[in-house]
Amino acid sequence: MKQRTFLAILLTTIALASFAPSKIGLFETGKDIGNPKLAGSSTYDHSTKTYTMKGGGYNIWFERDEFQYLFREMEGDFTVSADFEFVGKGQDAHRKVGWMVRESTDDNASHLSAVIHGDGLTVLQWRVRKGDKMRDPEDEIFSKEKSIQTIEVSRQGNTYMMHGAAKGKPLQLIGTHEMANFGNKVLVGLFICSHNPDVLEECKVTNVVVRKGKK
Q1: 4 falls within a domain
Q2: Considering the entire predicted model, what is its pTM?
Q3: Separation of CA 125 from chain center
Q4: Number of structural domains in the chain
Q5: Is the residue at 3 inside a domain?
Q6: Domain holding 199: CATH number?
Q7: Helices in 25-150 by DSSP H: which ranges?
């Protein structure tokens, strides 16, 4: 009887484990936001500690977004950083990668994003409230440097700071913004958007660091 009970428990445990979502590196899950025409993907190579992301989507702008998101839930203060590199020449100068802090996976959710574009344009941008239209230039802070490789985002209370650096250079402050409407729990992760519904773009992300607490 004991053997049967143990076997039943073991089989139940295995079954539950098989349905449990597997983590991707430091992140809980990867998924497409906004149902883009072409499905994206996110993978992690443990041997090289490299994330490979592929994403489509029309844009991350106006009142709704489409992109591939690799994220985890975080509370309180934190600092995240990574090096980003596009794969190939790309189809659109405004393909984009970076870090995103988001209130939910809804396509019109409020968010704050540290963005590197395919043409080198680097910005801190945000959607103030769910369903709002993002505005140019009211909802953006532009970097003077256009060869940014490393992006760091830190949160202290309601204040978010974006630092960036070209390859081999020290981090420099790009911008600071208050997001008072975010709760204590937020989604934090990497993203890629092709800025063209008919195209999948690819990027490599390395040297990813996720730290909880004050910087």
Answers
A1: no
A2: 0.90
A3: 13
A4: 1
A5: no
A6: 2.60.120.200
A7: none
- Tokens 């393909």 appear where? 95
Q: Which two tokens stand for residue 198?
A: 């008919």
Q: Which residue has the tokens 């344009």?
A: 121
Instruction: Give the domain range for residue 118.
Output: 22-212
**pLDDT above 50 for 17:** no
Helix (H, G, I), strand (E, B) or coil at 91: coil
169 residue type, one letter? K
**What tokens does 116 get?**
């590197």
Tokens 């081999």 correspond to 168
Interatomic CA distance for residues 113 and 190, integer angstroms:
9
Question: Contact 134/62 with Cβ under 8 angstroms?
Answer: yes
Residue 8 lies in a domain: no
**For residue range 109-128, what is the model confidence (pLDDT) as tens digits?**
999 999 999 999 999 999 99
- The Cβ-side half-sphere exposure at 72, using a 13 Å CA radius, reads 15
- As a residue count, the chain comes to 215
